[in-house]
Amino acid sequence: MMTDAPATLFVIVGGAGDLTGRKLLPAIARIVEDKNWHETFHVLAVGRAVKDDETYREWARKSLMLAGLSAETVRAWCDTSIYYASNAEESGGWAAVAGKVAAIEAKHGLPGNRAIYLAVPPRAFPTVIEAVGQVGLNKSPGFTRLVIEKPFGKSLESAGRLNEVVHRWFEESQVYRIDHYLGKETVQNLLVFRFANALFESAWNRSLVRSVEITVGEHLGLETRAGYYDQAGAFRDMIQNHVSQVLTLVAMEPPVKLDADSIRDEKVKVLRSILPIAVEDVVYGQYAGGVIEDETVPGYLEEPGVAEGSTTETSVSLRLHIDNWRWQGVPFYLRTGKRFPERLTQIVVRFREPPVALFEVAGSEVNSDAIVITLQPNEGFELHFDVKAPAEDMRLETVPLDFRYAEEFRALPDAYETLLEDIVIGDQTLFVRSDEVEAAWGLYQPILDNPPMPEPYAAGTWGPPSSQKLPHATGDAWWEDSGD
Ligand SMILES: NC(=O)c1ccc[n+]([C@@H]2O[C@H](COP(=O)([O-])OP(=O)(O)OC[C@H]3O[C@@H](n4cnc5c(N)ncnc54)[C@H](OP(=O)(O)O)[C@@H]3O)[C@@H](O)[C@H]2O)c1
User: Fold this and answer.
1) Relative to the CA of 120, which ligand 1 atom is closest?
2) Claim to verify: residue 374 and residue 475 sit in the same structural domain
3) Which CATH number characterizes residue 116's domain?
């Protein structure tokens, strides 16, 4: 089916990098195929090597085939719509890139709509943005959109400085800060789940909710990312962005409209309503060796590239409170880590027990009801509630009502496909605004300035013992420990 999308030139800076090869090009190729954008969607990869279109296409073809795209799609689109420009000094630098942009637009009769995607390491963001501005690529006859990958800064101060550079050349309405979690169908569905279902939304507050838990766990270890990760750690890598984005969607008020700024206004309000986080409410962990899925794996300090005696945290658990009418007194537990028992992104909303303990009289226990929303893998929703076990004298059992996407719908689109399409149609809803980024850094900066020492945990567990105990202070337990 043909959709109306403005003809666009996608300029990917860092066009021969890992992200481009594994995620961006395959996602673009799938959109082009699904939406029949062959005539309207073109790519210019920019890099510091000096090579020509054909050499780059060779690399692009391999990346697309590796990502499982059909040879037909690869040939049809790659050969006519992918170009390469070098920004190396010896090939004319950014002036040459601007020249190639103009040449491609003239060749395909494009109206000058451009998305400039920064798929380079974060330290290169400011120099690339300055260079783009100085050669005038920030302005065009059509629209110009700047897409920035995460991480956006590594502190409140550096995020502020980066925003200054961005705003020197671009209006905020042109800026698309990617947090690919927001492109996941299940994350977006949080808005529908809450605001299209009065049943759930009417229970979504301090009167009925006892606690909220958000877990983003990976079973993988460091892999090849030591250079970045040993500097960043789990807090900067996960809590400040992905986990906080999920938190804001779980906790926000209904927006006045469904447009980008109305939604983002409400998300920022959540971040600004969070009380300063107490040091004793934060637990850092670092994985030691262990066994995952019958495989013995090394500890973090034995991973190649990790500094000797590194104190970088590979897990974080924390408790926070949102100081507003809806959530006053409700603890929110956030948790992330590498080498957890499984790859899992999950939200658990637990409800209060009934005010009268009617069934305890009969020697049975009432569990609090819960909604478990799994964002990945096996995406779906479960509502856990108590029933009477049949033929037994008032013994209660907790059972789930279960909905799984895979059983109801076709395969979910990749997050990057959703986000890239939104960039082209100009919908900023799923992108992070500058004030949102700074509000998140501002909230967490005191912890980052004064971090706790990481405690060891065995690979294949959910973090150190102190993390397991964190919810006990308020009479709670992590979902997997609760026996529900
Ligand atoms: N890889 C992922 O799965 C992933 C996931 C989430 C976010 N990200 C973010 O996406 C961005 C790109 O990640 P990546 O993994 O693709 O990185 P990468 O492979 O390390 O780098 C991408 C490209 O950037 C160029 N580059 C490297 N250093 C540069 C510098 N100092 N100045 C200018 N260009 C430089 C290189 O191309 P040339 O040598 O040809 O110039 C390189 O191929 C990063 O910001 C990363 O944090 C990546």
Assistant:
1) 24
2) yes
3) 3.40.50.720
Q: Is 326 in the pocket of ligand 1 (CB under 6 A)?
A: no
What total of structural domains would you count in the chain? 2
Atom of ligand 1 nearest to the CA of 178: 7
Which run of H or of E encompasses 209?
strand 209-217
- Tokens at 3, concatenated: 């959709």
The beta-strand segments (E) located in 324-389 are 331-337, 344-351, 370-376, 380-388
What are the phi and psi torsion angles at 283 (to 5°)? -125, 125
Same domain, 63 and 188: no
What range defines the domain where residue 37 resides?
A: 8-149
Q: 118 C-alpha to center of ligand 1: Å? A: 8
Distance 335 CA to ligand 1 centre (A): 27
Q: Considering only CA atoms, which of 226, 125, 451, 16 is closest in space to residue 133?
A: 125
3-state helix, strand, coil in the chain (%, to 5): 45, 25, 35
Ligand 1 in reach of 225 Cβ (< 6 A): no
Looking at the fold, whether 387 and 445 belong to one and the same domain comes out as yes
Residue 142 Cβ inside 6 Å of ligand 1? The answer reads no
Q: Atom 40, ligand 1: which residue's CA is nearest?
A: 47
Active-site residue 242, yes or no? yes
- Note whether residue 264 is domain-resident: yes
Q: What gap in Å lies between CA 169 and CA 146, rounded to an integer?
A: 10
174 within domain boundaries: no
Tell me, what CATH number does 369's domain have?
3.30.360.10
Q: Is the CB of 149 under 6 A from ligand 1?
A: yes
Give the E-state strand segments of 87-208 in sequence order: 114-118, 144-148, 175-177
Q: Which of 126, 149, 172 is at the close of a domain?
A: 149
DSSP assignments along 435-451, one per residue: HHHHHHHHHHHHHHHSP
pTM: 0.93
What pLDDT tens digit does each residue of the chain (484 aa) get? Answer: 345 789 999 999 999 999 999 999 999 999 988 888 888 899 999 999 988 999 999 999 999 999 888 887 788 788 889 999 999 988 889 999 999 999 999 999 999 999 999 999 999 999 999 999 999 999 999 999 999 999 999 999 999 999 999 999 999 999 999 999 899 888 889 999 999 999 999 999 999 999 999 999 999 999 888 889 999 999 999 999 999 999 999 999 999 998 999 999 999 999 999 999 999 999 999 999 988 888 899 999 999 999 999 999 999 999 999 999 999 999 999 999 999 999 999 999 999 987 777 776 555 666 778 999 999 998 999 999 888 888 767 778 888 899 998 888 877 888 999 999 999 999 999 999 999 999 999 999 999 999 999 999 999 999 999 999 999 988 889 998 876 6
Q: Are residues 325 and 377 in the same domain?
A: yes
